[in-house]
Amino acid sequence: MTKINSLRGMPDLYPEDLISWHPVENKLVEIFNSFSIEEIRTPLLEHTDLFKRSVGDTSDIVNKEIYSFNDRNEKSISLRPEGTAGVIRSIVEKKLDQQQLKLWYMGPMFRYERPQKGRYRQFYQAGVEFLGFPEGSSDFELISLVCLIIEGLKIKNSIIKINHLGDKESKKAFSKELVKFLEPHKKILDEKDLERLNSNPLRILDSKDTNVQNLLKEGPSLTDFISDSANLMLNQIKSSFSKYWDIEIDTNLVRGLDYYNGLVFEAISDDLGAQDAFLGGGRYDNLSSTLGGKEMPSIGLAIGLERIISISSITSSKEKKIAFITSTSNIAPLAFKIANQLRIVNPNVSLDMDLTESSLKAKLRRANKTSASHAFIIGDEEVESESVIVKSLREDIEQVNMNYEDLNKFYKEI
Predict the structure, then answer these.
(1) What angle do CA 370, 314, 237 make, to 5 degrees?
(2) What stretches of 315-382 adopt beta strand conformation (E)?
(3) How far are the Cα atoms of 6, 54, 85, 221, 313 from residue 177, in angstroms, in the given order?
């Protein structure tokens, strides 16, 4: 019978992979908690219309990348391609759209695109949403959160890029001038940028074509269309944080989702290669009303976990591990009773019970190949004397017998 492989672009994560994931995930949660941000969990599946209305009908995500299918009731549902839309939908549904909330989430997202390094069809994101907070202090706090993430995860060679898209009117006015400027130069635009010219001209600012980028240097600048207060905010953010972190104003930064307005930002690292962004976000003041809720000014960010893990310098703390070995199977019930008591005494230690029917010699050999510091051994003699042998696996010292009370004390202090 032929074996079944995983779907393309949806990799398995094995224990040896997750050794580098857990410290990053734990550190992120620690940072979120330090900002008094609370966790929210939303479904992987949503109505397809949620993403059409939020991300935009003209976006690549909806047109080319979303995993959509009909359920048994012939309703179109989709695997979530990003996290913000589901969070806003849940807040509107529960009628919390007039409150001020700071929320974080973490989990898998799905997009159908060509798998490559740092980009998968099932990928993982952590995200933060500040809901109900108007432009101003919330923007500064979110940038400070970005800085702390970079600091806390020990990410090197990074730059935080910021820009301001203005309000609905200024975006519309700039888009009109941009189209007017680019119309005579259509011949140098590739198929993708031509689509953007007709559907969402702002996205052309994010073009990867060098010729287009050189042309845009001669065109209208977004900074000429946004308000003085918006330009002031950009410069204040740069001056406030640039003493400790590398922050630059990038007038071509637009982000890839239609719901953004106002401040947008991303963090990049040279260590990632071509796909250099590991974090990004911005303000989305109109998304709640677009999804049937009330006006709720908001700003958020999303973190690509695969990318940020690959460049983080933090490591997990050394695991405390003990091997628990029985020399004969008939004393296993007693061993499990002792093991359970030890786990209650100190849950921070990994107690690895050997469940095989191997010889004592083979069990010790396996224990020596692990990261365990000691082996606890119980045989018939130990049962009679109500004791356990404690053998060091890392130091050349003589093994000792401990009664259950002394064993509990030893285990608690490991």
Answers:
(1) 165
(2) 321-326, 350-353, 374-378
(3) 48, 25, 30, 9, 45
| pLDDT tens profile 69-102 | 999 999 999 999 999 999 999 999 999 999 999 9
pLDDT, tens digit (0-9, with 9 covering 90-100), for 317-354:
778 999 999 988 788 889 999 999 999 999 999 999 99
Question: Which has the closest alpha carbon to 142: 177, 169, 175, 103?
Answer: 103
How many other C-beta atoms lie within 10 A of the C-beta of residue 189? 19
Task: With H, G, I as helix, E, B as strand and everything else as coil, classify residue 15.
Answer: helix
- For the record, the structure tokens of 21 come out as 């994931």
C-alpha to C-alpha distance for 346 and 376, rounded to whole angstroms: 15
> Which helix or strand (DSSP H or E) is residue 211 part of?
helix 210-216
* β-strands 68-70, 45-47 pairing: unpaired
Amino acid occupying residue 387: S
Radius of gyration of the chain (CA): 28
pLDDT in tens, 279-307: 999 999 999 999 999 999 999 999 999 99
Mind giving me the DSSP string for 223-246? GGTS-HHHHHHHHHHHHHHTTTS-
Q: What is the pLDDT of residues 100-149, one digit of tens each?
A: 999 999 999 999 988 877 789 999 999 999 999 999 999 999 999 999 99
CA–CA gap between residue 35 and residue 174 (Å, rounded): 36
Angle, alpha carbons 167-173-177 (nearest 5°): 140
Report which of 248, 253, 194 is spatially closest to residue 222, judged by C-alpha positions. Answer: 253
Neighbours of 159 (CB within 10 A): 16
Proportion of the chain above pLDDT 90, given as a percent? 70
What are the tokens at 291?
């999804």
Residues 6 or more apart from 5 whose CB is under 8 A from it? none
Indicate the pairing of strand 158-164 with strand 350-353: unpaired
Q: Is the pLDDT of residue 169 over 90?
A: no
Q: Of all helices (H) and strands (E), which one includes residue 389?
A: strand 387-392
Q: Match 């779907």 to its residue by tokens.
A: 7
Q: Which residues of 105-141 are buried (b: 16+ CB within 10 A; e: fewer)?
A: bbbebbbbeeeeebbbbbbbbbbbbbbbbebeebbee
DSSP state of 124: E
How many Å separate Cα 93 from the centre of its chain? 25
3-class secondary-structure state, position 215: helix
